[in-house]
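My main concern about presentation is that the manuscript never shows what a single data entry looks like. The format is easy to grasp once an entry is in front of the reader. For illustration, here is how one protein appears when written out as sequence plus structure tokens:
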Amino acid sequence: MRISGITIPDNKRLEYALTAIYGIGLARSRKILDIAKVSHAKKGPQITPEEENQIRKAVESFKIEGDLKREVSGNIKRLKDIKCYRGTRHLKGLPSRGQRTKTNSRTRRGNVRKTMGSGKRKTDKK
């Protein structure tokens, strides 16, 4: 089954399979299946073409995939353009939601293997 150009996994239950689409999490997936009046426990091959169309119609009522990605990147670009605090954090590649940066945030700042030393120098033993 394909929805919005994304192949939905056949071996998973529908409520979990729909989360393969960007912008659909577990809560929204369950909401979509409730709107389409389809059982959450069904798997891909078990649904009828009519149910598939109902799911497709419900999914397309939400902003997903390309439209959502464009909106998010547009919001970040706006923050960068007006040079607000969050925008400057995005520009510098640092966490923008108030996390500490002295010890954590290795994935955001890069350089994962390099760690801080204790400040002591090793002395030669003779």
In short: The chain has two domains: 2-62, 64-96. The mean pLDDT is 87. The CA atoms of residues 41 and 110 lie 41 Å apart.
